[in-house]
């Protein structure tokens, strides 16, 4: 049985395998699943783009087709980035497995288990939230029509398709086929986001566990009541603990840098895409004559995007916080009771902790909760601009 078949990482393995992005699956299986995923995502994108191009003179069609196209392009970038950086993801997973193998007992193992359990919980919550939003997004035409058919009224309710295509082909004639295609395509779109983002969450939780383990070891540094400034190096226990902390700190920094470089490109594209897409969706509610099913669909799409960017910002903020907290741990340690050589090592480590680990989008933008609020502010600004041209 694979190491990743355990309770903590099985879901991540399953999500990535569905898309052919699990680094340890066979090449044939991976290529087949990638092909199926691209087939549905690209075919949905092509239909939405066709509807936009042929109805480019209609403001309503522009508003209703642009937003899903932006979301599709974001998902495609995520998938392509994952394919291109598959070897990096494999390195990250191998590092995680190696850490577990070298830390099988003791408090550090308990820390790993605690953070891995948190990762599992975040994965379940994130997947449930996005799949629920996707269900309401794609199934609203059928659900609302079904509800109206059960109501004691003679009025008929004609649900509109989730994107504008009626000026290209007879949507009523092919409604069921188009809905089936859309539902499957949305499933793959959401699965890409869930698989790739939950892999990111998994790695963030792991590196946070590494920093927490270092904090624990620094907190265990103890000198003697009678301070010996220059003891024999073999008898200097604090010195050896600090050396171990420095080695662990270097591994954590290397892991963090590799993680940041893996997602830098896709996150850079994500930020601009989300701002524009949220603005278009919000403006669509104000500028277009929407029915009940369309209103619910637009709200579901916006909620999914907000959950998406919030989870990425939240977990990135955890990395910043955990790497910064090492400063306080070093300050509060009993550094005044250890040898001079140990104090020097500890001071060098303290200097490095002044620069917290960060996840950067395109090496420019720092992913954090503070900047998440900035994204919302910019989205509102663009929304205001779009509504002003009505």
Automatic annotation (TrEMBL):
It is a multi-pass membrane protein. Its main location: membrane. It is found in: Cell membrane. InterPro entries: 7tm6_olfct_rcpt. GO terms for molecular function: odorant binding; olfactory receptor activity. GO terms for biological process: signal transduction. Keywords: Cell membrane, Membrane, Olfaction, Receptor, Sensory transduction, Transducer, Transmembrane, Transmembrane helix. The chain crosses the membrane at residues 32-53, 128-151, 178-204, 258-283, 295-314. It comes from the Eukaryota. The keyword Transmembrane applies. One of its GO terms (cellular component) is plasma membrane. Belongs to the insect chemoreceptor superfamily. Heteromeric odorant receptor channel (TC 1.A.69) family. This is Odorant receptor. It comes from Lasius platythorax.
């Amino acid at each position: 049985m694979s190491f990743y078949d355990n309770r903590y990482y099985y879901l991540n393995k399953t999500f990535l395998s569905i898309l052919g992005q699990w680094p340890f699956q066979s090449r044939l299986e991976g290529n087949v699943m990638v092909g199926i995923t691209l087939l549905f995502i690209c075919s949905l994108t092509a239909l939405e783009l066709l509807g936009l191009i042929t109805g480019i003179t209609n403001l309503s069609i522009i508003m209703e087709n642009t937003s899903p196209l932006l979301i599709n392009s974001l998902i495609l970038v995520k998938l392509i980035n994952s394919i291109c950086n598959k070897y990096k993801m494999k390195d990250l997973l191998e590092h995680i497995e190696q850490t577990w193998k070298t830390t099988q007992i003791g408090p550090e193992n308990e820390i790993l288990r605690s953070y891995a359990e948190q990762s599992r919980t975040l994965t379940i919550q994130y997947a449930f939230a996005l799949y629920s939003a996707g269900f309401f997004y794609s199934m609203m035409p059928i659900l609302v029509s079904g509800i109206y058919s059960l109501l004691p009224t003679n009025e008929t309710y004609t649900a509109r398709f989730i994107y504008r295509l009626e000026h290209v082909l007879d949507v009523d004639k092919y409604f069921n086929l188009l809905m089936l295609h859309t539902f499957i395509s949305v499933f793959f779109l959401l699965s890409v986001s869930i698989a790739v983002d939950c892999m990111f969450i998994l790695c963030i939780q792991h590196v946070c566990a590494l920093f927490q383990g270092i904090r624990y070891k620094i907190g265990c540094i103890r000198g003697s009541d009678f301070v010996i400034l220059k003891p024999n190096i073999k008898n200097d226990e604090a010195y050896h603990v600090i050396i171990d902390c420095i080695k662990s700190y270097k591994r954590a920094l290397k892991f963090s840098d590799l993680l940041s470089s893996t997602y830098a490109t896709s996150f850079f594209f994500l930020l601009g895409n989300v701002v524009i897409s949220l603005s278009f969706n919000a403006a669509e509610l104000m500028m277009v004559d929407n029915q009940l099913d369309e209103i619910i669909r637009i709200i579901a799409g916006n909620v999914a995007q907000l959950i998406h960017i919030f989870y990425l910002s939240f977990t990135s903020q955890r990395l910043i916080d955990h790497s910064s907290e090492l400063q306080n741990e070093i300050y509060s340690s009993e550094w005044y009771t250890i040898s001079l050589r140990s104090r020097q090592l500890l001071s060098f480590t303290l200097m490095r902790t002044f620069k917290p680990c960060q996840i950067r989008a395109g090496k420019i933008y720092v992913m954090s909760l503070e900047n998440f609020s900035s994204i919302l502010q910019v989205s509102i600004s663009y929304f205001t601009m779009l509504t002003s041209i009505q």
